[in-house]
Design goal:
Blueprint (H helix, E strand, L loop, with lengths): L8 H7 L41 H14 L3 E5 L2 H10 L6 E5 L4 H14 L2 E5 L4 H7 L4 E7 L11 H10 L3 E5 L4 H4 L9 E5 L13 E5 L4 H13 L5 H12 L1 H19 L5 E5 L9 H7 L6 E6 L2 H11 L4 E2 L9 E4 H5 L9 E5 L5 H12 L3
Parallel strand pairs: 2-3, 2-4, 4-5, 5-6, 10-11
Antiparallel strand pairs: 1-7, 6-7, 8-9, 9-12, 11-12
Helix pairs in contact: 1-2, 2-9, 3-4, 10-14, 12-14
The protein binds pyridoxal-5'-phosphate.
Length: 380
């Protein structure tokens, strides 16, 4: 009943961390709500559990599945993607330098600028699709190169193997936010990343009903021990139920990601060249500037598309008002398709084009999704 060592990701997703309960025989994993665990008269803890901020059964099962899924030595689960990102940044020291992509989830820039800069962590914002620019940004104090590919929300593609080489030549860690790629679409640890970061709120959970984050380490090092210490000491950990929901989501994740991806490809191809659109951004399209790299480093192109509408922000917002099937909401990776005007959610400093709409393609019939968007975009 254990996962064979040669198991492939789809098998790992269904099996890892799941075993019949030794007491009741329950096939579905029980949810352990207890925050505290029995101590023996000699002072030891035979179960290995002491107090749930430090370690808890549903989190242990989830972390085992997360590590196995990416082929990492260990994984740490957090209460959100940004909590996971914060733990990695906190594992660095004041005076260290981080290279952060220009095309990145805006919350990461906010963390670096508003939380970690006052703490003494230095950073440069660089276009990570331009390898020379990344090389030029390296300093003797650079300790972390962060990448996000495909990026949120412009779907930019960076060359992950090349970035890994630059980071390692500089003696820095290379971390990849693989939330959009997913462990099925993009094997970032195999491409040279030292750590994969996920907002497990998205495709792992998969149903828009749980918040979570994860770090998966290729190998354990001193930095990883510090991440583990921060997880237990700062306590930004998922509840038992949240860990359980994300672990359950992982079981169906491979099938969902396949469908998200094939739906997105159909929708992107169906919208490409539409007269009301200035651009359709999807790494699976031959015209995408990162397509050749995406073909090399991705097994699936993912479920995220962004489109730029002719007529500016006003027309983009009007499109979101005309859709009938897509839901106007933030976030991504759930079963239902979502549409969002990113510029207005990211605030006035946002570098996102004002006419850009981000589409999280769900599991509906792709033709229905395309019909809805064509109707909403209008004009021909
Ligand atoms: C690519 C990416 N990374 C990180 C995050 C942050 O994750 P969370 O909202 O779980 O903190 C998001 C959220 O939208 C995201 O899209």
């Amino acid at each position: 009943m254990t996962t064979p060592p040669t198991a492939r990701p789809a098998t790992i997703a269904v099996r890892a961390g799941h075993a019949p309960d030794p007491v009741t025989g329950a096939i579905a994993e029980p949810i352990t709500l207890s925050t505290t665990f029995l101590r023996e008269p000699d002072g030891t803890f035979t179960s290995g559990y002491i107090y749930s901020r430090e370690k808890a059964p549903n989190r242990t099962a989830l972390e085992g599945a997360l590590a196995a899924l990416d082929g990492g030595e260990d994984a740490a689960a957090f209460s959100s993607g940004l909590a996971a990102t914060s733990a990695l940044l906190q594992a660095l020291r004041p005076g260290d330098h981080v290279i952060c992509p220009r095309e990145v989830y805006y919350g990461v820039k906010k963390l670096l600028g508003q939380v970690f800069a006052p703490w003494g962590l230095e950073h440069s914002i660089v276009d990570t699709t331009d390898l020379d620019a990344v090389r030029a940004a390296v300093r003797p104090t650079t300790r972390l190169l962060w990448a996000e590919s495909p990026s949120n929300p412009t779907v930019a593609v960076s060359d992950l193997s090349a970035l890994a080489e630059i980071a390692h030549a500089a003696g820095a860690l290379f971390a990849v936010d693989n939330t959009w790629g997913t462990p099925f679409g993009q094997r970032v640890l195999e491409l040279g990343a030292d750590v994969a970061m996920y907002s497990t709120t998205k495709y792992h959970g998969g149903h828009s009903d749980v918040l979570g984050g994860a770090l998966v380490a290729r190998t354990r090092g001193a930095w990883w021990e510090r991440v583990r210490m921060l997880q237990a000491t700062m306590g930004a950990v998922p509840s038992a139920f949240d860990a359980w929901l994300i672990h359950r989501g992982i079981a169906s994740m491979e099938c969902r990601v396949q469908r998200h991806s094939s739906n997105a490809e159909s929708v992107a191809r169906g919208l490409e060249g539409h007269p009301a659109l200035e651009a359709v951004h999807y790494p699976g399209l031959e015209r995408h500037p990162g397509h050749a790299i995406a073909r090399r480093q991705m097994r699936m192109f993912g479920g995220m598309i962004s489109i730029q509408v002719k007529g500016g922000a006003a027309e983009a917002l009007a499109v979101t008002g005309r859709v009938r099937l897509f839901t106007r909401a933030t976030s991504l990776g759930g079963v239902e398709s979502l549409i969002e005007h990113r510029h207005s959610i990211e605030g006035p400093e946002s570098p996102t084009p004002p006419n850009l709409l981000r589409l999280s393609i769900g599991l509906e019939d792709p033709q229905d999704l395309l019909d809805d968007l064509r109707m909403a975009v209008g004009r021909g």
